[in-house]
Design a protein that fits this description.
The complex is a heterodimer of chains A (about 110) and B (about 110). Chain A is mainly β and about 110 residues long. Helices cover about 0% and strands about 50% of the residues of chain A. In chain B, β6 and β7 form a beta hairpin. Classes of the chains: A mainly beta (about 110), B mainly beta (about 110).
Chain lengths: ~110, ~110
Amino acid sequence: NAGVTQTPKFQVLKTGQSMTLQCAQDMNHNSMYWYRQDPGMGLRLIYYSASEGTTDKGEVPNGYNVSRLNKREFSLRLESAAPSQTSVYFCASSNRGLYQPQHFGDGTRLSIL
Amino acid sequence: EDQVTQSPEALRLQEGESSSLNCSYTVSGLRGLFWYRQDPGKGPEFLFTLYSAGEEKEKERLKATLTKKESFLHITAPKPEDSATYLCAVSASNTGNQFYFGTGTSLTVIP
C-alpha cells in the first residue's frame, strides 16, 4: 500500500520553463490537495479538489494550474516557472469532509534558477 | 493574523526528559485539530485528530490534549527516534475548505 506517491522527487528548472508535478493516491480518497512548504512558513495550500471533477483555489494559487485527472490522480502545473516558486511541494489526500485528516506524499523538491 | 501558532520553535531534550509542545489557534468553529510528525526529507505523517475541548489521544510516548484555545503534545520519556518536526493544523468554520498549518516545533532528543 503506497499511500500518496509524488513524482519526480527532485527537479531543477530554469526561469520560464514549464513542468507538471504528478500525484497519485491508492486509498480511494475523494479529496486531494497541493501544498508548498517554505522555510519559516507553514504548509500553504495552493489548490485542492474536493471530489473528482472539481478544483478550487487555495491560499497561494497564482502561477499554478491543476488537473484532477481521475479519482486517483491530481497534477500541478507550473506554466512559466519563477525563482519564487522554488519550494518543496506536497500532495495530500483525504476522505471527503473537513473533519478528516489529510495524508501526505514525500514531496517534490523544486529549484528554479 | 496567524491562525495557528506553535511554540517553541525548537526544543532540545535529553533522552527521558519529558516535555510539552504547544499549538495555539485563533479560529472560530473548530472542526478539528490535527497533529503531524515530519522527518527530514519526508512528508508529514498523521498522528492524531482532536475534535472538542477536553479530548485526549495517546500513542506510545505521545499524548495530545485540546482546550478551547490551544492543544498540547506531551512527550513522555522521549527517545532519540522521537526527534522530528511536529506540526499542528486546524480546520474550522472560518477557514473555509482549508486546513491552516503552524510552522512546527523541531524536537531533538539527545542520547
